[in-house]
Automatic annotation (TrEMBL):
This is ABC transporter ATP-binding protein. InterPro entries: AAA+_ATPase (IPR003593), ABC_AA/LPS_Transport (IPR051120), ABC_transporter-like_ATP-bd (IPR003439), ABC_transporter-like_CS (IPR017871), P-loop_NTPase (IPR027417). Keywords: ATP-binding, Nucleotide-binding, Transport. GO terms for cellular component: plasma membrane. It holds the Pfam family ABC_tran. SUPFAM superfamilies: P-loop containing nucleoside triphosphate hydrolases. Residues 6-253 form the ABC transporter domain. The keyword Transport applies. It comes from Dactylosporangium matsuzakiense. One of its GO terms (molecular function) is ATP hydrolysis activity. It comes from the Bacteria.
Amino acid sequence: MAETLLVGSGLTKRYGGVTALQDVSFELRAGEILGLVGPNGAGKTTLVDLISGAQPATEGTLTLRGQRLAGPAAKRAKAGLARTFQYPQLALELTVAENLLLGRAARRHGTVWQMVAGSFAGALRPQLPSDAQAVRSLALELGIERLERPAGDLSLGEQRLVEVGRALGQDPLVLLLDEPFAGSDASGVAGIVEVVRTVQRRGHAVILVDHNVDLVAGLVDRIMLLDRGRSVFDGDPQQCLASPEMQQVYFGVAEPADAEEDAKHVVS
Ligand SMILES: Nc1ncnc2c1ncn2[C@@H]1O[C@H](COP(=O)(O)OP(=O)(O)OP(=O)(O)O)[C@@H](O)[C@H]1O
C-alpha cells in the first residue's frame, strides 16, 4: 500500500461563535488525489487554510510523513506543502517569469504568500543556475507564453495558471488547489489537470477544492464531502455522487432515482 503522506485528526476551527470546521479527520496517501466538495460555507477553504498554516487550528493535529506539521505557513512550505488561493495571489508588478521563480524560492525560503505580501524582491535572489531552465520548463508544461508580461496584465484564468505553475515549482509533497478552475478556459483547465497529473506521477498528493462536483469526480481518487463544517462522506467519487449524503447536502431529501441523475450535474 502507498505511503501515508498527510494525516489530519480532529481538525476544528472556530472563528468566535462560528464553527467553520468540526472534528474533520482524513488520510492522504502518496499518489492520491483527494477532491474536497461541499456547498458555500461548508468549510473547504478553512480546511486548506488549516493544512497550509494560513490559519491555526482551534483543535486537532496534522502530520506530514509521520512528522508533526505545525507552525507558520513558511515552515510548512519548506516541509513540502504548496497551495493556491481562491483568489489568485500573484505579485502583480512582477513578470510572469518572476512569479514562477517565486515558487522555486518558496521551497528554499518560505511561503509565496509572505513574499507576495511584501518581501518578495529579496526572495528572487540568489537565483540558482537551474532556476531559469526550471521556469522555462514550467511555462512549457502549462502552455504559458510571453513570460516577460507583468502578472497584472493577465486575465483571471491566466493568473490561476501561473499560480498553479508557481506551486508546482515548489515540487510539493502535497499540493493544495483552492478552486483552480474558476475563470479558466479549456486550455487553462487542461494545463491545471496536467499539473495535477504531474504531481501524482511524482508520487506526491493533491487536495483539490472545487464546486464542479462532476469535474472533480472525473479527476480524483477520493472525495470528501463537507457540510456545515463536518465531513459527511469520504470515499469513492462515483459512490459519493450517488450517496444519500450528497442528495441531502445539495438537494435536501429527494427521490433517489432523480437525485442520482441530478447529482452528476452539480455546478454552483
Ligand atoms: N476569517 C473568518 N472569520 C469568520 N468566519 C469565517 C472566516 N473564514 C471563514 N468563516 C466562516 O466559516 C465558514 C466556512 O467558510 P469557508 O470559506 O471555509 O467555506 P467554503 O466551503 O470554502 O465556502 P465557499 O465555497 O463559499 O468558498 C463560513 O460560515 C464562513 O463564513
